[in-house]
Task: structure prediction
Amino acid sequence: MGRRYERIRVIMLATGLQAAGAEAAGAPMAEAPFGLAWASKTDMPKPTLMDQEANITAMIYFYGHPPAIGVDTQEVVLDVCRDEGLQRVVWVSRILSVPERTDLYEQLLTEGVRRHGASRPGPYPRSVIWSTGVLLGVRETPGRGEQIVMVSEGDEFSRCSSRHREEAGHSAVNHVAELFQLLASRPPRIRSQAPASLPSVGQR
Result:
């Protein structure tokens, strides 16, 4: 029981669900996940990979490279906007069997409701969202299993996304939306592959 709680605690800390207690449900998050600060442009660990598109730089971390910690983590992506700084954090679990995914998802959902109150249906199939800007969802990896995805957004994300649409021709929301498209090709900015299959920063 202790180990199970510790796994959930690590994920909650990583994705921002710890930011407010149940008594503060509906209030905006005061802090970004991982102890980072929304709008920061410099206070991030060195990433495994970096990928820039228009006004957004994606800083990608694979399991074992902070902040991608915890046994259920596969990768973390920090989206840093040119003008608004850090505005989105994406946490992707390791590939899970259906029973593993069911168990972990239900624990995360229960803890999220306990801390933030009722969620509402999210924009993607099998997803929910809280008013604090945190999304919890499930993506399928055909023939491999399922992954849990959690997304936290800062207060200036909408402005950053609008600027991204002007410069790149699509909204920054698309980068997460592609994760939930069953037959979509792997999106370029959220890898969802094992670290060994991708080059490191030094190999690029």
